Write the structure tokens for this entry.
Amino acid sequence: MTQKDNWGWRARIGLFIVGSEAVPEAEWWAMAPPGVSIHAARVTSPSPWARWRADRSGVDLADDMQRGCRQFGAMRLSAVVLAHTTSSVVGGPGWDEATAAAISAAMGTDAVATTNGRDTLAALAAAGVTRPFLVMPPWFPDPAVEAAVRYYTDNGVAPAGHLRADAGRKWRDLPPGDLYGHGMGFAQEIEPLYAQIRAACPPSADGVLIGGTGFRCVGIIDALEQDLGRPVITANQASLWHCLRLTGVRAPVAGYGRLLGP
């Protein structure tokens, strides 16, 4: 008798993720349908992970990205995603498209390349959300929060409101930029996050968008949708959904929101 081995016979998806994070892989593996495997390359470069050339003719991938592309290029992947919200929102107009093209060129394969920014925009459109309540991680500094609001507004989905989640009493004496370095990424609790979002979501919002691929949150998608009566999109959920659609995988996934559901 054979046992489950997580082999990607339907699709193999590569993720570029923050080098020190555990959340993206955990959430993707929780949500991935049978026959879809997840493979991570870790990036330690500053944001964004690809830099515009002086003449803006394209972007140059960070060294970790180049290395990952070479390795992914040999793995017969179906899709690859730059799974980093911050890079998309600070990259500026056209950055997502230029970076996806650079990833494709560096891999030299026919695997589909995308970015978390493109994925969340596609997910919002599919869910019919045009005025999301934007929720960002506690460790996002003010410039990153402002860049996220501007990014979605510039792309036609102006947030009805936004929230930088409260990290909790233990962390309140630290500025946002210091939280991750002190271990907050591995001390995340989803129940307090659920309560914050439910209490703060404005009536004018027609959905919720939770940004940040290192932000633990997919475990509360269903509960929020039931209680708010609106679609809930998260960074990792949106990228998984978009990669599945781009590779022709239509298998529904229960328990993680309307986007992935039957």
In short: DSSP finds ten helices and ten strands in the chain. Residues 129 and 156 are 10 Å apart (CA to CA).
